[in-house]
UniProtKB/TrEMBL annotation:
<comment type="subunit">
    <text>Monomer.</text>
</comment>
<dbReference type="InterPro" id="IPR009019">
    <property type="entry name" value="KH_sf_prok-type"/>
</dbReference>
<feature type="domain" description="Era-type G">
    <location>
        <begin position="7"/>
        <end position="174"/>
    </location>
</feature>
<dbReference type="GO" id="GO:0070181">
    <property type="term" value="F:small ribosomal subunit rRNA binding"/>
</dbReference>
<dbReference type="InterPro" id="IPR004044">
    <property type="entry name" value="KH_dom_type_2"/>
</dbReference>
<feature type="binding site">
    <location>
        <begin position="123"/>
        <end position="126"/>
    </location>
    <ligand>
        <name>GTP</name>
    </ligand>
</feature>
<dbReference type="GO" id="GO:0005829">
    <property type="term" value="C:cytosol"/>
</dbReference>
<dbReference type="GO" id="GO:0005886">
    <property type="term" value="C:plasma membrane"/>
</dbReference>
<dbReference type="GO" id="GO:0043024">
    <property type="term" value="F:ribosomal small subunit binding"/>
</dbReference>
<keyword id="KW-0694">RNA-binding</keyword>
<feature type="region of interest" description="G5">
    <location>
        <begin position="153"/>
        <end position="155"/>
    </location>
</feature>
<feature type="domain" description="KH type-2">
    <location>
        <begin position="233"/>
        <end position="286"/>
    </location>
</feature>
<feature type="binding site">
    <location>
        <begin position="62"/>
        <end position="66"/>
    </location>
    <ligand>
        <name>GTP</name>
    </ligand>
</feature>
<dbReference type="InterPro" id="IPR030388">
    <property type="entry name" value="G_ERA_dom"/>
</dbReference>
<dbReference type="GO" id="GO:0003924">
    <property type="term" value="F:GTPase activity"/>
</dbReference>
<keyword id="KW-0342">GTP-binding</keyword>
<keyword id="KW-0699">rRNA-binding</keyword>
């Protein structure tokens, strides 16, 4: 019997903030690539996850939650990223919370291009207690857009995720793979380092910190290590808007910053499979002069 021809295609994951896009991407790629947190708007970059199974290579694109409420420069660029993602792909996973459809969902739906097949992914179906309630909702959804298929699922359920692969496969064109079989992301380790610090930052500050805070990776150096194969030295700066935010990130006696950097380091060591030395600084965007007050935090002592 002849082997199945190779398939390879790009799948965009779109949806308003907090519907579970990052959770889904991580489950699909099988390793933590994108960042997730309870805070809306944490996915600021277009992140690619790659998964190769049997004859098919799935290339996933995660997109920032489509922001409609405010119109800052940041939001405008977020929206541009979403637009970029939805156009040139083979398949769109339009993610919503099962049984719900808000004005924000509608804005994202309006971005879908007619020629590209879209699946309606009704996520968090585990939170719907009466499945029967979904039927009328589904009918309404089908009137809103000609979805190719309807997939009720939970991004946290491995069986649902497996099933989704089977559904997506047939939409991807027959063509040679673009990436090697074991590649998971085309993002650099330096990029992942910044994302990991940012995830911990938002996880440990909760809703207190505005999402305009960013993380800059100032240094990423590696050297061979006889004991661990290699040893990576990273310096990152958390950039915040105000002194008050800085104090919030640092926490009492530097405890919070220490937790952020320790957890980020541990996760990076797992991700990269080596020893990591991580230094995290906090700076106020406008006040670069207060260098003396900056707090240094070592990943390990
Ligand atoms: N109950 C339940 N919760 C889920 C499911 N999928 C995701 N979540 C939760 O929903 C929240 C948001 O998930 P994310 O994956 O960060 O959402 P997102 O759409 O990427 O959000 P942005 O980055 O803000 O665009 C997290 O607390 C997840 O744990 C699911 O299937 N069921």
């Amino acid at each position: 019997m002849e082997a199945a021809p190779q398939r390879c295609g790009v799948i965009a994951i779109v949806g308003k903030p907090n519907v579970g896009k990052s959770t889904l991407l991580n489950a699909l790629v099988g390793q933590k690539i994108s960042i997730t947190s309870r805070k809306a708007q944490t996915t600021r970059h277009r992140i690619t996850g790659i998964r190769t199974m049997a004859a098919t290579q799935f290339i996933f694109v995660d997109t920032p939650g489509f922001q409609t409420r405010h119109s800052t420069a940041l939001n405008r660029s977020l929206n541009k990223t979403v637009l970029g993602a939805v156009g040139d792909v083979d398949l769109v996973l339009f993610v919503v919370e099962a049984g719900k459809f808000t004005a924000a969902d509608e804005k994202v739906l309006a971005l879908l291009k007619p020629g590209v097949p879209a699946l309606l992914v009704a996520n968090k179906v585990d939170e719907v207690h009466r499945r029967g309630d979904l039927a009328p909702w589904l009918q309404q959804m089908q009137q809103r857009h000609a979805f190719a298929e309807f997939v009720p699922m939970s991004a946290k359920n491995a069986k649902d995720v497996e099933r989704l692969f089977g559904i997506c496969e047939k939409y991807l064109p027959e063509q040679p793979w673009w990436y090697a079989e074991d590649e998971l992301t085309d993002r650099s380790e330096k990029f992942l380092a910044g994302e990991t610090v940012r995830e911990k930052l938002f996880r440990f500050t909760g809703d207190e910190l505005p999402y305009t805070s960013t993380v800059v990776v100032d240094k990423f150096e590696e050297e061979p290590s006889p004991k661990h194969g290699r040893f990576v030295k990273i310096a990152a700066t958390i950039v915040v808007e105000r002194d008050g935010h800085k104090a919030m990130v640092i926490g009492e006696k530097g405890e919070r910053l220490k937790r952020i950097s320790t957890e980020a380091r541990q996760e990076l060591e797992k991700l990269m499979g080596c020893k990591v030395f991580l230094e995290v600084w906090v700076k106020v965007r406008s006040g670069w002069a207060d260098d003396e007050a900056r707090v240094r935090s070592f990943g390990y002592e």
